[in-house]
Amino acid sequence: MTVNLKLILGAIIVSVLFLVFILIITAILRRLSHSRKYKELDRQRKIYRARLLNALRSGQTLKAIAFFSSPPRSIKWQAIEDVLLDLINEAGYREDIKNMLDRLGYISYYERQLNGSSIIKASAIDKLGKMLSESSIGKLAVMLKDKDPEVIAVTIRALSRIGSIKCLITILERLPYLLKKELVSRKTIKTSLIMFGIDTVPVFLEYGEKYKNPTIISIILEVLAHFHTKEALPFAMNNFKNINAEVRAKALKVIGMTAPDLEDFDGGRLLPMLDDPVWFVRLQAAKALGNIRYTKASVMVGGLLLDEKWQVRDVAAMALTKFGNASIDIFLRLLRYKDIYAKESICEGMEKTDFVYRLIENLDSDDREIYEKSKEILHIMGSLNFITPLLEYMKKGENGKIRKEIELIWEKVERG
Amino acid sequence: MRFIFASFIIGFNYFVGIYYSIANLFYTILLSISFFIVLRHIKRIRYSPIKDFRVSPEIPPISILIAAHNEKDIIIRTVNSALKIDYPFFDVIIINDGSNDGTLETLIETFNLKKIDLVYRNIMQTAPIKGFYYNAEIPNLLVIDKEKGGKADALNCGINACRNPYFCSVDADSILESDALLRLIAPVMESSVPVIASGGVVRMLNGIGVRDGMVEKINLPKSNLALFQIVEYLRAFLFGRVGWDALNSILILSGTFSLFNKAAVIAVGGYTVGHVSEDMEIIVRLHEYHIQHKKPYKIKFISDSICWTEVPESLKMLGRQRRRWHMGLMQSIFQHKSMLFNPKYGKLGIVAMPYYLFVEILGPVVEVLGYIVVISSYILGLINKEFFFIFLVLAIFYGVFLSTAGVFLEELTYRRYPGWNHLFRLLIYGTLENFGYRQINSFWRFQATIKYLIGKRDWEYVHGKGARLKTERR
């Protein structure tokens, strides 16, 4: 028993000591080798950066290929790759660098790596994307059929970085399958699609019309909303009454962003959407009508100040402040209403958008009606504890008449 | 009688031996899992989409919630650090939790804040609000002044006030790395399963050079106690949490720096006021709620998202902190005892919860009693030399290996301590940690167990944690 115990003890001690020793030695050796490697890499990056810039400026990159070529994975190879990837984003050198990357064998090297494990594959895809390798689009398209969601996500990003129409079409063609199989998150898709830029809007519109899948249509609408272009408006107008609520909301978002630029846009067509059963559709409708300053909608938007969802109430209050004095009546009517939440949303909206300062200025207005209504609104705000702008004006305001009016409002508020 | 006593003592010795073998086996499994996961993560960073997120309109806006109680000396540094974070859409909400040292006045003066009126919904009941402070020129900064209610209450108040779908809780004595939020949000962006919380790594701010709210120069602290804690944190974060994360069974995300989905937190009623360790409690409740309601979810730990925080440099404060942590752990596990060994909760109920009960909670008790009983048994001749040494090897020697492994993982991956002297000092302190520091820690946790059992469950405040003033001067 004692002998066995001694043996076990000895074995444990030796093993643990050995492991500790191995860890320490590995850490030290690794640090030494990395220190040397990165020092050399920094040195070579500096040298080749200067040489590459010279070659690029003199337009003699092709003649210098032999000088820059090196075996894959050598320090020189890595240094030149780092410099080229750093310079590729400078528009003037882009085509020359893409050409060099191809001739120096980087593209073919990383294309070969597409047969490796998931991590090697993903890393190679990322590199091909950064190298803006249009010749690799076919091979990258195959990667969209991979089973690993990470590989697919990296491929989508790589294609969007290359950024050609062919890349966009490759992604859009594969989109139904990817979404059906839930192989990639919608956020990843949208983030990547936006990178294609405003010039690709016609392609998005073409595929928007082609697909009937509401998820894809809403993704396309979201991307179009980001581009903020009038070209997207007809497509959005075709979809704002779609059966799918998300599509309706996204279409209204596009309309709200693009229609304000059009003088003849008829906001009346959007009015029915303020009664939509889905809250985020109502929200987007109110936002759109506020953006296009469709004052005829003020009564209906005002109705949303009593909406069951606070998000809708907030947006409605913000939208109304954009209608200027035209919304004073609406605010007043609702501020007389009993719903405290609605009243608070209105007051906060008026403070945040500085509409409250318009009301304060109205205290010196010659228009008696505007004056009376503004005064009443400010009084209600005061009674709801939204008093800071009033107090601030009393302290710092320049107009003596307004200050006096505020003092009267304040006294009335204090009397309750 | 004497025979029975001797048999009991010998039996206990065997129990200690077996207990340590099993506990160390657990640690080794966690270490092995973490080793592969961290290495894989490091490779994945090369093609990480973090840079794309920076310009993505799809990235969800985040509110950074900072609960502050008497943090006048450091609050400006923390706010400056938070405001400089590299993230497209965020706001910073400071909740002044009844400070009486001038924290609020310092904030008002520094950021030229004005009292404003805001709609505030008391979704989760908190101590009364005294005011909101805002500067239109810094629209993403809001200060809430409220009566004192504790950290959980302050965070609940921040959740009530924030309008963003995600919030990140950050301690008032902490500094975020500029890309910390981008890294923390990555799983939310990439995962097709909803990520309801994600936490990052917490590292020591003691000894670090700070300028304008950002980490300028990394150095090791001079204090031995802080150095021991560095090794301890490396071990806990780089192989403890990474391992549990791989099993989607993480039970602790540091309250110093964690991101949450606001709706998920509201669904479980927010932070528990009066709980000794509100950060663990919220995670356990999030797990429980989502499993009970059969909602798919993930809680992630991100090993490269970093927040620097101050740690105590005095034994008194460290003891308070550790007793509080341990008591919080016990409180959470015992409050949710129905999850223990419950197959309905999957790996969480079968592996993670029992691990925390038998290894983390019971560990200090076995360790302290083990030192007393095994050493006395050896002196009294009840056990032989070999058994005594096996105990020492299992209890202490293996700890040296685990500490070295923690430092090694750091070296292999993120290498935030770049100097040669950093490496050697960490290795030395990783060894020394097992001779004294670890035993004191076990004793504090043992104390916490006793206090918990006798019902003395008060919150022990830790103040003047580290070298804040020294850092500022530096």
How are the elements arranged and paired?
The complex is a heterodimer of chains A (about 425) and B (about 475).
Chain A: H1 2-58, H2 65-68, H3 75-87, H4 94-103, H5 106-112, H6 118-130, H7 137-143, H8 149-162, H9 165-180, H10 186-194, H11 201-210, H12 214-227, H13 233-239, H14 245-258, H15 279-291, H16 298-303, H17 310-321, H18 328-335, H19 340-352, H20 355-362, H21 368-383, H22 388-396, H23 400-415
Helix pairs in contact in A: 1-3, 6-8, 7-8, 8-9, 8-10, 10-12, 11-12, 12-14, 13-14, 14-15, 15-17, 17-19, 18-21, 20-21, 21-23, 22-23
Chain B: H1 2-45, H2 50-53, E1 62-68, H3 75-83, E2 90-97, H4 103-111, E3 114-116, E4 129-134, E5 141-146, H5 151-161, E6 166-171, E7 174-176, H6 180-190, E8 195-204, E9 209-211, E10 214-217, H7 224-246, E11 257-261, H8 262-267, H9 278-292, E12 298-309, H10 315-335, H11 346-379, H12 385-412, H13 420-453, H14 468-473
Parallel strand pairs in B: 1-2, 1-6, 2-5, 8-12
Antiparallel strand pairs in B: 3-4, 4-5, 6-11, 7-12, 8-11, 9-10
Helix pairs in contact in B: 1-7, 1-11, 1-12, 7-12, 7-13, 9-10, 10-11, 10-13, 11-12, 11-13, 12-13
Shape of chain B: globular
Find the count of extended strands of chain B (DSSP E, 2+ residues).
12
Q: What's the N-to-C terminus distance of chain A?
A: 92 Å
| CA-CA gap between termini of chain B | 65 Å
Relative strand content of chain A: under 5%
What order do the SSEs of chain B take from the amino end to the carboxyl end, as H and E?
HHEHEHEEEHEEHEEEHEHHEHHHHH
Helix content of chain A: over 70%
Instruction: Trace the largest sheet of chain B across and list its strands.
Output: 3-4-5-2-1-6-11-8-12-7
Multimerization state:
heterodimer
Element-level helix/strand string of chain A? HHHHHHHHHHHHHHHHHHHHHHH
Question: Radius of gyration of chain B, rounded?
Answer: 23 Å
User: Which spans of chain B of ≥5 residues are poorly predicted at pLDDT below 50?
Assistant: 466-474
Mean pLDDT, all residues of chain B: 86
> How many helix segments of chain B?
14
- The global form of chain A is elongated
Compute the number of helices of chain A: 23
Mean pLDDT reading of chain A: 88
